[in-house]
Write a structure and sequence with these properties.
Blueprint lengths: L16 E4 L2 E5 L3 E6 L7 E4 L4 H5 L7 E4 L4 E6 L2 E6 L16 E6 H12 L13 E7 L2 E7 L3 E8 L4 E6 H8 L6 E6 L3 E5 L3 E6 L17 E6 H13 L6 E7 L2 E7 L4 E7 L8 E6 H9 L5 E6 L6 E5 L5 E4 L6
Antiparallel strand pairs: 1-2, 1-4, 2-3, 3-15, 5-6, 6-7, 8-13, 9-10, 9-12, 10-11, 11-23, 13-14, 14-15, 16-21, 17-18, 17-20, 18-19, 21-22, 22-23
Helix pairs in contact: 2-3, 4-5
Length: 335
Amino acid sequence: MKGIVPKKTTMPALQGILVKDGFLIASNTEMTVKVKLEGAENEYFIIPERAFDLISNLPDGEMNISVTGKNIITIQVDKIKNKYQTMDPELFPLGAAWEEGSEWKIQADILLKAMKRVSYAVSVQGCNAIMSSVCLQATGGRLNFVGLDGHVLAWDQVNYEGEFKLLIPKNTVDKFRNLGITGEVRMKYNSAGVVFVTEGFEIYTRLVDGEYFKYRSMFKKLPLHTVVSRTALLDAMIRARMCTVKKCAVRFDLEGSALSLSIKDKLVDYHETIELKEPLSEALAIKFDARLVSETLKTFDCDKVKISFGGPKMPMIVEACDSEYKALVLPVAVK
């Protein structure tokens, strides 16, 4: 829960975790997370930030927490006891009451896997809020998960009947993935936000407003394509990156059934050749950012991937051989 607590805020109460009506509640400017807590059904107080590390390092056993009228909180386990000054729980902002909206259901493992696959491609920092969000679009019997940052684009799909489009901030998605939710997830949304509800969690988040990019049109059918071992290509990219300390592009020279990788700077002249599972119809030389290719390959879990090219200035499309997941990586200029 402490991963939700903001480091800096104009509302000091948000730097603690609220205990109310049988829930632990943490909140920041984007999301609020409620976790069921047995034994606290009638309690109402704030656990201050200073107490987080102590609680995390207490030995196993029953923990007793008591609060006095002067907002003094006492935490005790066996012979360990400490007191903290806390804040009035009335100062903790809970936001407006949730307004009813549309609802859909999905299994947590399916939702988390798709979110993990595409979130790596989402811009970490930037002034473009839309590019810093994960798109969830349900249409045509499919639920699409999309992320992009201008250099890479990732797109996954699962079966789903319904129609909606939601833009969820990347920070929310990253924290959501680390909460450890399981089982069925009910998702309720309206124009202002969305709430994910499981047996033990309620996760509220705002939505990003705006029109998302036309990602479908970016995945065009390309004339040059082959199949390669994902692990062989990933291992080769990792070795190439290890040989240089600079952000240096990796050159792909594809011809017949061979992919030759090379990376060169003032100190390094690295070469490696891996076998293609299917011969390419014509030779091609193209360069990519080694980090982007490596991170893209890590999001796949199949043994082989299909890679397609349109020319030295066009993106590479990587597609899973066992699912609908695909990604696009932009090249860098070849001299």
